[in-house]
TrEMBL record:
Transmembrane segments: none annotated. One of its GO terms (molecular function) is polygalacturonase activity. One of its GO terms (biological process) is carbohydrate metabolic process. Keywords: Glycosidase, Hydrolase. Belongs to the glycosyl hydrolase 28 family. This is Glycoside hydrolase family 28.
């Protein structure tokens, strides 16, 4: 990416790696010399270098040798403020990142060293979202981040914003579990992003795709699109791979594959709410292993965080509202070959909004087993005001249309394996239900088809439905496991 051959060792310019000297101005002088040369490499040999923002320009590489650590300055004055004018109307003012670039091309940060944001200097004020990111290229093209470790980010760790052609490969991110808003990798309104071979262990979502909120842009909304995430391990955090809740510009054309999630609260997590607008569409997720998660899959149209009022019925009413430009859309989401073990809360929680149901969601080859016993504390599978904590719950699905579940194996203790409510055109085929409750529960829905499925001999019945839903229910290739079961039980 960077063909400029000039290499400047920062220690030749008076930069001191003693862990105490503030090198902000000296490093800026090195960057200035590289600009005169048309680009090149700023080289950090082993040592501990205290600094504020390092702002790279065109054709520049920051190389951290093994044993080199950049320590984020504790002085906010060392991180210049970003304004709306700097961002062409984007409403996201804050401190410039520890390593940053703006309107630059051919930017690389690489090596075997460490970026330490020393976020503990900032975390005492968790509501201050102006905290500096660890790496923040803005409106850049051809960005590469590889090899390094990043720890203790003050805010979101890696945050490319409005960038094109971004490669993030083989990095490690570690932030404390209780550190506020320390997401791992957050491409926002970016296109052509490749994330691979990364290990992420953070205090918030591990990898999140965003595209701004309803208030972020004065004019144009930029989508986050053409994204690949593969061969990554996510540990802890609130979500493994997440879309939203800032998605007003839309998120589309995404593949997520060959990843392992350990102890993330949710696995695949899609979240937004009314008034944010945007469309999440054409998402493909394949070959994912999860262990010790609250819920492997959640889609939440009632996301509550961000200073919202639970009594704001414009946002949180369970009744149908008029469709507007600000109505969010979820469609064309394909999930296959997922295995989830030791699940605590729910096999899945899909909760669309009634005026714009989750549409064309397809789940294939999904295996889920719950944590056994009563030792786990109940938790909320999604963050919505009206959702109570639960544990041992199956797949709960509300406000969906044109949805299919194929070859799904659920071992659920507390509820029916799949609960379908206020939905239409739902197909369930090849369901294996191991729990002692009813396999499928249907409420206020129509055009539901259940076929070629098996239920545990200990289950109460196979299908429990209200009369309204039963009127358009189709059942094929389903047999009793014992003589006391009913294939279809109609309840009031």
């Amino acid at each position: 990416m960077n063909t400029i051959s000039s290499v400047l060792d920062v220690t030749n310019f008076g930069v001191v790696g003693d862990g105490t000297t503030n090198n902000t101005k000296k490093i800026a002088e090195v960057i200035g010399e590289l600009k005169k040369l048309g680009g090149g490499t700023v080289y950090f040999p082993p040592g501990e270098y205290v600094t504020g923002s390092i702002i790279l320009g065109d054709n520049m590489t920051l190389y951290l040798e093994g044993g080199a650590t950049i320590l984020g300055s504790a002085d906010p004055e060392d991180y210049p403020m970003i304004t709306k004018e700097d961002l062409e109307g984007y409403n996201r003012e804050g401190h410039t990142g520890l390593v940053a670039a703006r309107n630059a091309k051919n930017i690389t940060v690489t090596g075997r060293g460490t970026l330490d944001g020393r976020g503990y200097n900032w975390w005492s004020n968790p509501k201050n979202e102006q905290r500096p990111r660890a790496f923040q290229p803005i409106m850049c093209e051809n960005v590469r981040l590889s090899g390094i470790s990043i720890i203790n980010s003050a805010m979101w760790t890696v945050h490319p914003m409005c960038c094109r052609n971004v490669t993030i490969d083989g990095i490690s991110i570690k932030n404390p579990a209780d550190s506020p808003n320390t997401d791992g990798i957050n491409p926002e309104s970016c296109s052509n992003v490749h994330v691979s071979n990364c290990q992420v262990d953070v205090g918030d979502d591990c990898v999140t795709l965003k595209s701004g909120t309803e208030d972020d842009y004065l004019q144009k909304k930029y989508p986050c699109e053409n994204i690949t995430i593969t061969n990554c391990t996510m540990n802890n955090g609130h979500g493994g791979v997440v879309i939203g809740s800032e998605m007003s510009g839309g998120v589309r054309n995404v593949t997520i594959s060959n990843c392992v999630f350990n102890g993330t609260d949710r696995g695949i997590r899609i979240k937004t709410r009314r008034k944010r607008g945007g469309s999440v569409e054409d998402i493909r997720i394949d070959n994912i292993m999860m262990t010790n998660v609250f819920a492997p899959l959640t889609i939440n149209g009632y996301y509550k965080c961000g200073g919202t009022d639970p009594n704001d019925m414009e946002l949180f009413s369970l009744e149908k509202k008029p469709v507007e430009d600000s109505t969010p859309v979820f469609k064309n989401i394909y999930i296959s070959n997922v295995t989830a073990r030791e699940v605590k809360c729910a096999a899945g929680y899909i909760y669309g909004i009634p005026e714009m149901p989750v549409t064309s969601l397809h789940v294939d080859n999904f295996v889920c087993s719950m944590t056994k016993g009563d030792h786990d504390v109940a938790s909320a599978p999604i963050m919505a005001w009206h959702i109570e904590p639960t544990k041992g719950h199956g797949f709960y699905c509300a406000n969906m249309k044109d949805v299919s579940f194929n070859n799904v194996h659920l071992d659920v203790e507390k509820t029916s394996s799949i609960i379908i409510e206020k939905s239409e055109l739902v197909k369930v085929s090849g369901l294996t239900s191991e729990g002692s409750n009813t396999a499928v529960e249907i409420k206020e829905s129509k055009d539901i088809m259940i076929s070629n499925s098996m239920v545990s001999p200990t289950a109460k019945d196979f299908i429990e439905t209200d009369a309204e839903s039963n009127a358009t229910l189709a059942v094929n290739g389903v047999a009793k496991s014992n003589e006391n079961q009913e294939i279809v039980k109609i309840v009031d």
